[in-house]
User: Fold this.
Amino acid sequence: MTSRSRRWLLPVVTVVLLGGAAAFAAVSWSGYQARQSAPAAVSTPRPTLPSGPLLVFRNTQLGDDYGLVASVPLSDPRAKRTVTDLPCDRVYATHQNLMCLHTDAGVVTSFGATLYDASGDRLKDWALPGVPSRTRISADSSLVADTSFVTGSSYGVKAFSTRTDIAQVNGIDYGSLDQFTLLVNGEKVTADDRNFWGVTFSDDDNTFFATAASGGHHWLVRGNLRGRSLVAIKDGAECPSLSPDGTKIAYKKNLSTTGTPHWTLAVLDFATGVETQLPISDNVDDQAEWLDDATLLYGLADPAKPGDSNVYSIPIDGQHGPTLFLAHAWSPSVVR
Assistant:
């Protein structure tokens, strides 16, 4: 994948972005260091998954399998998990592909993305400019996206930079979203502080949604790949996730009026324009995944166990709170 390393600064942004990845990056770094000092593996990882509907995720249970891609049957998340030999910071899977964003320890630490097919064979590898953050594959496995921080940026500072790229699994590389035209209220936004992250794909091969930020605003944007354009459709929405039927979109919503963000999840119904805020008391810093058209999944760090996390489910009706769906897991993706 073609990479571009243009740096953007957001001097007015004080929020911590993109899914609690800072804590996980630190723990991942320790895990990778341990693996780096271990004897070399006989072969490279081949992340083959069981058949049938699955929840694929990053295992965060402390031990030898920490940080490895794992799965459980979607119908029985409490069943024994199948653990692969593939370490990832962030993972996403469909029946046809698996995308892994990873940190590679060495004399110089590097970051990369690897795309696998259903047999576990490597299809593509490319470098990332910094700490991995987000990845998505379209439902038909034709498109893949990744978001990472640019080296030198940080999660907890006012000035940071991310890069988001989209490509066809077999074909065109659309490159970085910072090369797309951004329109807000019909006006082109060209400020140097533009920033983009958190892609979610529609069911065609052209439309997607993402977050765009500039001047302290965080917009939900609709993207047009062939037109290389992004149009803002809602302010105050981050890390979108489109429902399987395409009628609704979930995203993070900041409830705080101070400099310290407090995110919950909200869902926008495209037909009615009604936004439903979900009753979550915890600070949710993740890109949600749809379990089905009426239920969301999201990861939440465990404050009592640094480096560990759990996946929760919550109905989108706004009337019921979250329940634990899968313990010791992060970066959930539903393989239907």
